[in-house]
Structure formats: C-alpha cells, structure tokens
Amino acid sequence: MERLQKVIAHAGVASRRKAEELIAEGKVKVNGKTVTELGLKVTDNDSVEVNGVPLEREEPVYYLLYKPRGVISAAKDDKDRKVVTDFLPHVKQRIYPVGRLDYDTTGLILLTNDGGFANLLMHPKYQMDKTYVAKVKGAPFRENLKKLERGIELEDGKTAPARVKVASVDKKKGTSIVEITIHEGRNRQVRRMFEAIGHPVMKLKRERYATLDLKGLNPGDSRELTPHEVKQLRAMAEHGKSAF
C-alpha cells in the first residue's frame, strides 16, 4: 500500500505537493468516492480518478546501477549535483533509489518506481544483506573485528551483528582490505563502525545486495533486473532470509 499523493505523483499527473493540493480540493476519487484525506493509502486494486480522469499507473520497473563516486543517491538534487537517475536517461518511468549510498561510496544500488517493493527491501525487520569492501587505515586486530561481528556501540545505538573478513593487508602502505556484510542501513554506518575501532575507511564499495552483484558492470553502468531476481528479492524480504 502507498499514500494516495505518492501514487498520483508516480503516475506523472502532478508533483507530490500538487497531488496533495488536488486531494485537499476534493478533485480526487478512490473507488468512486471523493477523498480529502492526505494520509489515505491505496493498493494496486483501488481505482483512482483525478479531475474525473482514471489514473493510469506506470508499469513497475526495477534497475541495478553501479553508482560511481561523487554521485547523490536521489532522483534530483537542489544543488544541481549529479544524481543516480542521471545514469538511466532511457528510463521513462519516475524511478528513485532504494535506500542510499553515501556521496563518496561506490557500488550497487537499486532503483524502481515500485514503492511497495522499495519499502519491503528497506524495512529493517526484513534484514536484507548488504556486502561492502572497505579499504581502511592500518591492520585491524582480530579482537576489533569481533567487536564489529558482535555489534558495536555508535552514537545512535548498538549495531546488529555483522560478518567481517580481512581480504588483504598492505604493510608497506599501512592499509587493509576488509569485507563486511550488514543488514542495517543507518547513515554512513560502515564508515562509523570502522572509525569506532580505530581504522578509518579510505574507500568504500558496496559489492553485493542480497543475491545481486556487480558482475560485468563498470561504474555508471546499469541493467534491468530479471523477473526472477525481483521475485527472489521479494521472497527473501518477506521471509527474512538473512545470512545471519
């Protein structure tokens, strides 16, 4: 279920703010009845009319993007910076990112116009695994890695358990490559976790999201998810198929 004004906006009829005005003015009907409640939620089975014209909803689409560094995880930016949707100009639907990757973080991000699907994947209780590869300063001791695995206290609370593996250590440069899998999505979480154990992140890339990876893609490349991949992600979220 999605809020009525969001459904209207996604159909391309008006912006979300204008859609709210139309609802408040009594120009929107749901299943033949005029509604003025902004918080009303509708399903795909509900009939929606705007100014007497039935709403034609967009066909749901699902894309995977290899986000480059220096790109905002948004559909638009008020500072006119490059955003993830700039890399999919061929997509006519009003897509938006599922969650976010930091400006300086590269890697896998999903985009869709399916709000229900996006909310399902982002909801913390469904625990979708996200795997990152971090280049960090120094060589973390095993005890520090165990802190991350057990969950570590940050300013916004203790993190959920993580899976952590050191891939390599460069003693000359004083850096390490560490793979970490989490299922939360707090702001700059991975960076803050490594800072908390004294090993700041120098570079960060999300390599996997659940069963999806970046195989065959370069930064800025995208591809449409297959129906099987969409079905699999939805099933994993609904049944809590986390690796932990």
The N- and C-terminal alpha carbons lie at a distance of 29 Å
Count structural domains: 3
Major sheet, described briefly?
Answer: 9 strands, mixed
Number of strands: 17
Q: Look at the structure and give the CATH class of the largest domain.
A: Alpha Beta
Supply the helix-strand structural class.
alpha+beta
Shape: elongated
CATH architect. name of the largest domain:
2-Layer Sandwich
Strand content: 25-35%
Briefly note the CATH topology name of the largest domain: Alpha-Beta Plaits
Q: CATH H-level name of the largest domain... which superfamily?
A: Pseudouridine synthase I, catalytic domain, N-terminal subdomain
Q: Return residue spans where pLDDT drops below 50 for at least 5 consecutive residues.
A: none
Order of helices and strands: EHHEEEEEEEEHEHEEEEHEEEH
Helix content estimate: 10-25%
* Average pLDDT, all residues: 92
Number of helices: 6
Global Rg: 21 Å
